[in-house]
């Protein structure tokens, strides 16, 4: 999945990234789902190991346009994982108290502790995306945030946090279909807001904002992946693969008992 990694300091043009791509994966959806099931099992074991070892902290950041699939990704990638070991933090429009503080205040409170895996459903990146597109703060303010975010993430990384960031890449046509599906299906309608249509009109502005995010904030210690996300099965598979590979790379070990338990027999 290395082809989806954004190398630090590269200029990203999203029109050059194919949202329908399924990479080297020739087997199609059925094979993809079978592979995902295997990966989900691996993730279950790795997460338990991580919890037991109580050493590493893992942060997964998900960003996407509306209907991009953040919720679906969380549901399917963490399907098998023990809910006690994973936490999802969702960042909605800030409250009054949050607005009274710097934009990283609410975010820092939610970062993972030792042995914990946290998924950010939206994140501090909203403060250079929606905030920029809607001019909630002037360019002098959001313009400084790319460096601030890099420094914030560097601090987390240097203090033992493994960070993975995924941009779920869909196109305008796919969003049209997914929004229409939400309208047509009474069980999905609750997700639809008229405001989503206003946001949709701002698609080009959002793409520009995302391109800046991806170009300026993909680092060695907190890389971005651009995940082709028109095909949901491939999106899930790609993210799961990166996550499993990364966790395997941590070389985690079950801790030794602090006491000598040799020869202890339960009566
Ligand atoms: P989602 O669309 O993520 O699945 P949702 O539909 O349940 O979530 P919404 O209220 O539509 O909930 O989404 C959260 C909204 O909060 C988004 O429109 C997002 O842009 C906005 N938001 C998040 N962070 C900020 C921020 N820092 N400043 C302004 N708006 C923000
Ligand atoms: Mg929404």
Account of the 3D structure:
This protein has 267 residues and is of the alpha/beta class. It has a single domain (2-248), classed as P-loop containing nucleotide triphosphate hydrolases (Rossmann fold), CATH 3.40.50. It is 43% helix and 12% strand. The protein has helices spanning 28-53, 70-77, 96-99, 105-108, 130-133, 139-142, 145-158, 172-184, 195-201, 203-216, 232-248, and strands spanning 57-64, 86-90, 117-121, 161-169, 224-228. A 5-stranded parallel sheet has the order 2-3-1-4-5, sandwiched between helices.
Q: How would you sum up this structure in a few lines?
A:
The protein is of the alpha/beta class. The protein has eleven helices and five strands, in the order H-E-H-E-H-H-E-H-H-H-E-H-H-H-E-H.
The tally of strands reads: 5
Q: At the first level of CATH, what is the class?
A: Alpha Beta
Q: Bin the helical content.
A: 40-55%
CATH superfamily (homologous) name: P-loop containing nucleotide triphosphate hydrolases
Number of domains: 1
Structural class: alpha/beta
Give start-end ranges of low-pLDDT stretches: none
Termini separation? 51 Å
Name the beta content range. Answer: 5-15%
Rg is: 20 Å
Q: For the residues shown, what is the average pLDDT?
A: 97
Hetero compounds: adenosine-5'-triphosphate, magnesium ion
């Amino acid at each position: 999945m290395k082809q989806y990694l954004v190398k630090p300091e590269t200029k990203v043009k999203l029109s050059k990234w194919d949202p329908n791509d399924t990479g080297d994966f020739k087997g199609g959806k059925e094979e993809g789902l079978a592979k995902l099931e295997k990966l989900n099992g691996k993730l279950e074991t790795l997460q338990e190991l991580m919890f037991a070892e109580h050493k590493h902290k893992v942060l997964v950041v998900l960003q996407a346009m509306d209907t991009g699939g953040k919720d679906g990704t969380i549901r399917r990638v963490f399907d098998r994982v023990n809910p006690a070991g994973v936490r999802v933090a969702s960042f909605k429009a800030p409250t009054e108290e949050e607005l009274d503080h710097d934009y990283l205040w609410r975010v820092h409170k939610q970062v993972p502790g030792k042995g914990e895996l946290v998924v950010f459903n939206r994140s501090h990146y909203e403060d250079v995306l929606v905030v920029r597109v809607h001019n909630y703060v002037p360019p002098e303010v959001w313009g400084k945030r790319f460096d601030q975010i890099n420094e914030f993430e560097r601090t987390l990384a240097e203090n033992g946090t493994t960070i993975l960031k995924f941009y779920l890449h869909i196109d305008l046509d796919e969003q049209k279909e997914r929004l229409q599906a939400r309208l047509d299906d009474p069980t999905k309608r609750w997700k639809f807001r008229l405001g989503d249509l206003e946001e949709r009109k701002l698609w080009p502005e959002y793409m520009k904002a995302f391109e800046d995010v991806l170009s300026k904030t993909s680092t060695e210690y907190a890389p971005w992946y651009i995940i082709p996300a028109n095909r949901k099965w491939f999106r899930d598979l790609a993210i799961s693969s990166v996550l499993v590979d990364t966790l395997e790379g941590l070389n985690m070990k079950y801790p030794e008992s602090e006491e000598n338990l040799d020869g202890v027999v339960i009566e």
